[in-house]
Amino acid sequence: MTAPRLTPVTLDGRHVRLEPLAIEHVGQLMAAARGERDTYAFTHVPATEDEMTSYVRVALEQQAAARALPFATVDRSTGRVVGSTRFGNVEFWPWPPDNPLQRGLDVPDVVEIGWTWLTAAAQRTAINTEAKLLMLEHAFERWRVHRVSLMTDARNARSRAAILRIGARFDGVVRAQRPASDGTVRDTACYSILDVEWPDVRAHLVARLTPRDEAAAPTRHDARERSSGEAGRRASRSGGGSGRAVG
């Protein structure tokens, strides 16, 4: 049987571009990682060029083995790399050939979104929200996966809140699940989104990314109603119309 493979892809949005991670990104990733690091306490972000080179090479090895699909995160407004993210823990389930859930040998069944880090300036911005939207769209609409998992160190309150804001559901905590970035053994808080939940999650993320002025823009009907109301008030003030209402 031919081993499954993952094809690198670029995911383009309004605020962010997710480029297939390459060794050529090492310098730009280092520039991003040299900034403020206070929010990296529970996230592995390489601090030296040698560490970053190893980080990228390991990610590419996992990609070659169809276990991950890593990206460099690019701020579209500046063209600068501001971090990295990836699909990981990619699973291909062995469906029988005649099973309708067998959608192709190179199509994953479940994936995890994670290994995400961003410069301090890019955190809690449209860059992160749209990156998650683009990845979830690819997972649910291109691959048609059954589940997307999102995991974080159980101590990382900031990350846990961000995952909940995406719309994922809390599944529980797995104790002593994997090595932590600080050299300890971490408990992992587990969250997920199922394919049946995706439409609501997508609508939620799109609404978060819609500019307030655009969301608040009146329809033509609203504009006509408002214009009619203002005309009535002007007539009332000038003594025309039916005058002040008496109750």
In the residues, how many domains can be counted?
Answer: 1
The oligomerization state is single chain
User: Major β-sheet, in short?
Assistant: 8 strands, mixed
User: DSSP strand (E) fraction?
Assistant: 25-35%
Which strand order spans the largest sheet, edge to edge or round the barrel?
A: 1-2-3-4-5-6-8-7
- By CATH's scheme, which homologous superfamily applies? Gcn5-related N-acetyltransferase (GNAT)
Indicate the CATH class: Alpha Beta
Annotation, overall tally of beta strands? 8
CATH topology: the name is: Aminopeptidase
Q: How far apart, in Å, are the first and last alpha carbons? A: 83 Å
| Helical proportion, percent range | 25-40%
Mean pLDDT: 88
Could you explain how this protein is built, in words?
The chain is α+β, with helices and mostly antiparallel strands and 247 residues long. The chain has a single domain, classed as Gcn5-related N-acetyltransferase (GNAT) (Aminopeptidase, 3-Layer(aba) Sandwich). It has helices at 26-33, 49-64, 126-143, 157-166, 198-209, 212-215, 220-237; strands spanning 11-12, 16-20, 69-75, 80-91, 110-118, 147-153, 169-179, 185-194. An eight-stranded mixed beta sheet has the order 1-2-3-4-5-6-8-7, with helices on both faces. β5, α3 (126-143) and β6 form a beta-alpha-beta unit.
Give a short summary of the structure.
With 247 residues, the protein is an alpha+beta fold. The chain has helices at 26-33, 49-64, 126-143, 157-166, 198-209, 212-215, 220-237, and strands at 11-12, 16-20, 69-75, 80-91, 110-118, 147-153, 169-179, 185-194.
Name some characteristics of this structure.
single chain, 247 residues, alpha+beta, Aminopeptidase, eight-stranded mixed β-sheet, disordered C terminus
